[in-house]
Amino acid sequence: MSDLKFAAIGINHAHIYGQVDCLKRAGAEFVAFHAVEDDLAATFGAKYPEAQRVSDPRAILEDAAIQIVVTAAIPGDRAAISLAAMRHGKDVLTDKPGMTTLAELDEIKRVQKETGRIFSVLYSEHFEVPATVEAGNLIAKGAIGEVINTVGLGPHSLRLNNRPDWFFTRNRYGGILCDIASHQFEQFLFFSNANDGEVTSSSVYNRNHPHRPGLQDVGDAHVRTERTTGYIRVDWFTPEGLKAISNSGNISTSSAAPVRTTSSSSTRRAPSTSTVRRSSCRLVASSSMTSATAPRRPCRRSVATMP
Questions:
Q1: Half-sphere exposure of 236 (CA within 13 A, CB side)
Q2: Which one, of 216, 66, 229, 242, lies nearest residue 151 by Cα?
Q3: 54-104 pLDDT per residue, tens
Q4: What is the DSSP letter of 96?
Q5: Helices (H) and strands (E) in the chain — how many of each?
Q6: What is the pLDDT of residue 241?
Q7: CB distance 207 to 126 below 8 Å
Q8: What is the rounded CA–CA span in Å between residue 169 and residue 171?
Q9: What are phi and psi of 186, to 5 degrees?
Q10: C-alpha to C-alpha distance for 297 and 294, rounded to whole angstroms
Q11: What residues have CB less than 8 Å from 202, skipping those under 6 apart?
């Protein structure tokens, strides 16, 4: 057990459980959390009874004994939480995406440089998936040769009836490339052993959910480094009726209705050239490609530094 104490501000995404468990495994002590949602707080508090729920985030920010703040708040709120934590002298471990706009990225870089605090992002599909970690080890050892191309696919199940309203609000979740594809951007750079990369084209659409105009249900991007190219595609079209084989070998099928895949009007197409760069303050790939032309901006992967 180390003498590090940490607290959580914002628990809206279930990734918060992995973040907390990661720090606890590293020996840190979980002491407090702030959540405005009583239903989320009840489940979370039952899982971590050692952490006191506080009604005001200032109780965490102004507690000098707390060295680390973790957050899996609504994506549109994460940058503000991280900035407040660093300005109060605390390190940050945020869920991905760490921010949803380029302006937030710039401000986080500036405050991190001013404060010298650690700003880190826990990419669960990298750091909590042994296969990804081992693939990186094999590449580093030269066991499979030089990586020249990667394909990163991120299919997800929408579970429409189980999503809160913010999930369908563009400026709250950040867009599909900012949200889901941040995993694939980070892994592209990781497997390429690259500090910098370039997004050469990208597109996002709402293909099948016109009643949720703020939702982007499919998106893709082409990326490259000096020696590596890559393709990324993410979507919300994983059907809930796929067959699954249980541990006993039995095959079961969900009774959920199939997902319709007919095309509706697209939201926008975004050919772009944008920079993906590793920053000294370990920032997250999180700029969304939704404008007609996107400027070259940093949006680099992060390494979650554990005590």
A1: 21
A2: 229
A3: 999 999 999 999 999 999 999 999 999 999 999 999 999 999 999 999 999
A4: S
A5: 10, 14
A6: 63
A7: no
A8: 6
A9: -65, -45
A10: 8
A11: 177, 219, 220, 221, 222, 270, 271, 272, 274, 289, 294
List the structure tokens of 145: 């040769």
- The percent of the chain in helix, strand and coil, each rounded to the nearest 5, is 30, 25, 45
> What digits encode the pLDDT tens for the residues 138-180?
999 999 999 999 999 999 999 877 899 999 999 999 999 999 9
Considering the entire predicted model, what is its pTM?
A: 0.78
Confirm if 83 and 61 have CB atoms less than 8 A apart: no
- Of 121, 191, 179, 123, the C-alpha closest to 151 is 191
Q: Domain 5-122 in CATH: superfamily? A: NAD(P)-binding Rossmann-like Domain (3.40.50.720)
Helical (H) or strand (E) element with 95: strand 91-95
Which residues does 82 contact at the CB level (< 8 Å), separation at least 6? Answer: 69, 71, 92, 94, 98, 99, 108, 119
What are the backbone angles phi and psi of residue 92, rounded to the nearest 5°? -130, 135
Strands 29-34 and 5-9, sheet pairing: parallel
How many CB atoms are located within 10 Å of the residue 168 CB? 17
Buried b (16+ CB within 10 A) or exposed e, 34-60: bbeeeebeeebbeebeebebbeebeeb
In which residue ranges of the chain is CATH 3.40.50.720 found?
5-122
143-277 is classed CATH 3.40.50.720: no
Query: According to CATH, where is 3.30.360.10 located in the chain?
Result: 143-277
Tokens read off for 95: 């869920």
